[in-house]
Design brief:
The protein has 101 residues and is an all-alpha fold. It has 5 helices and no strands. It has helices at residues 24-37, 46-59, 64-71, 76-82, 87-97. Helix 3 (64-71) packs across helix 4 (76-82). The longest helix has 14 residues, at 24-37. The radius of gyration is 18 Å and the shape is elongated. It starts with 23 loop residues before the first helix and ends with a helix.
Length: 101
């Protein structure tokens, strides 16, 4: 309904006021508001969500190339930066695939 008759184009997030694309700062303010309401003490910003998204996908078996496409990265090495695996995940992969584990 917001996108109808607006200048939103292909934007996913729209401003409730006029249906215009939500700005980077607008998204940050909304995220900060809900982090405060949830009493999250650490700094929360949109990039944390992006990083968490990629990490959760990879840790749950998503192909790194698919994650690269979703994040819009031209180079796979950029995607690897966002998908740090936890120690538990690395230990599990080692146990499962290493012949001497």
């Amino acid at each position: 309904l917001l996108a109808r008759g607006s200048r939103a184009g292909s934007s996913v997030f729209l401003n409730l006021r006029d249906g215009a694309p939500l700005s980077r700062m607008g998204i940050w303010k909304i995220l900060r508001k809900y982090a405060t309401l949830a009493r999250i003490q650490s700094k929360v910003h949109p990039h944390v969500l992006r990083h968490s998204f990629a990490t959760h996908l990879v840790e749950n078996g998503a192909d790194l190339r698919a994650v690269q496409e979703m994040l819009g990265h031209a180079d796979i090495s950029t995607t690897r930066i966002y998908s740090h695996l936890s120690g538990d995940t690395l230990r599990q992969v080692h146990r499962e695939f290493h012949p001497r584990a």
